[in-house]
Amino acid sequence: MMKKFKQELARVFDDNLRTKQWQNWVDYAIIGLIIISTVEVFLSTFDSVASRYGEWLRAIDLFTTIFFTVEVTLRIWCADLIDPKYKGFWGRVRYCFSFYGLIDILSTYTFYIAFLLPIPYSLLKALRIARLMRVFRYLKAFRILSKAISNKSRELLVSLEFLAIVTLILSFILYFVEHEAQPEVYENGWTSVVWAFAQYIGDPGGFADMPPVTLAGQIIACLVGILGIAIFAVPAGLVGSSFSDVMEEEQKKQELKDTAVAINEMMLVKSTRRENMYWPAKNLSFGDLTLNLSITEEEIIKSVAASSNLRVKNLAAVVNDGPKTDMMVVNQFCVNESYGCHLERGSSVTIVNPLGLGDNGLSYFDWHIAQLGGFNYVANEIFSRQHSEREKRCNFYTIDDESKENANFLRFADHILTGRGKEDWIIVIAGEQIVKNKTHMHFEFGGETGEERFDFEGGIAPDRDTVKKLFADMQNTLQKIGLTVDAHKVQPKLNPQNISRYLQSKTEANVLLLTMSYKLMVFGKEVHSAIVNIADVLNRNLEHNRPAGLHKDEYLVRTIDSDYWTKLYGLS
User: Fold this and answer.
1) 63, 230, 363, 452: which could join 333 in a potential S-S bond, CB 3.0 to 4.6 Å?
2) Which of these, 17, 11, 13, 9, lies nearest to 139 by C-alpha position?
């Protein structure tokens, strides 16, 4: 319960006002209270208002301070879920010294420090105003400006270093030429350095009001004046140029995101009617997308990269016979977690997809089995040992030491295991590893290759009677649609690092690995019939928490006309 509460808080504090989630109302409430708090401080500066409405203003101040204290404390607590770099004690300290973390601390906790230390009331009020800076985390304009400055940080640093060094050289020369003329004014090098740098900010305090009197000194003063223009003009030009680049980049990103939405919509428009139900398209080829959306292959690839729930796959990877010709397609999946997808439906069955990114057709296959069966669903859609990005190069199928230390894998495993007991079933479904095998489905629960018994030792499913019954039912059911099922016929024995073995070592629940034919999942005309029948067999043999029967309501109307599918893929 506490973990789920913390996860919900992490979603609240994602600082994203564009997601269609209830948590956005909390974001708007925080922004509203920041504005109310700032208005309260402003009104308290008017004596007439403070004398008449002082009690109300103090009440607002007290309420907002308590609210922000709770909010900031919770934000620090769940910082590790917002960003893994803030994990642990020192991670929390790092968060507190980040830009927004420091603003949070100074604008909130200083109220309580005032009970212990004599902090001036005016300083406390000034720090309250700093709360307004917390709004920056929600503003796109501030993010764009920050990025523009960050993109030109090297150039800005080089230009400022050059200007500072030239100014120092000129200030030292100024000392030597002016010291003889007015030694009481230019006593040492520090005086000339202060004078030179004070000119850049207009010498507001008059502490460098000592103009040079020699011709050489006046020439140097002119040069310093020119540098004063450059010290603002050069950075302003650099930031301005970068700002234009970032704005153009943001516009291109938005265009790509819009195209990704159009692709998601087309996946629903191109629905398939099978088994008297409507299914979202399994794949859309580059040719289909080019024809229907008038976009190029390059735009398809870039738009998919800008999306969180689309990927490009080459179906030729699962063709075993004959010459291979690239068959580039786009397919769709669901993401609501850092590793992929987690749906808890209160079922006694949990479908696990450990290889969504790597196994062709697996995400579609596993998703719809869980959807129709009403099962819990946990899918890794992001990580792979062959990922192009190093930070996403983690194996969720063969669990090594590196996997066990990966925060995203641990979160994935936790979602699979939490709340599972002896009566529950964890069904891992993956693509077959022996590609030349002709069987469509392989039951694997820990036996040696060729093991035909169900009562051997060292298995991963303690309830062998149910496994035996499930296998017979699955075999008979799928045989009627021309599909074959075996148990340990050709697949090698599960090694200790296999995800199924790993899960079995962490739980009392029954674990079963089903490996499916790629040919069936990717090219098989029977794939929808297979999904329906597999979901049905699993439901009637293993489900005991929810009402029996398939959940077909979401499949009864065309997917593009269904609120369920359009909301799922962010189209409504």
Assistant:
1) 363
2) 17
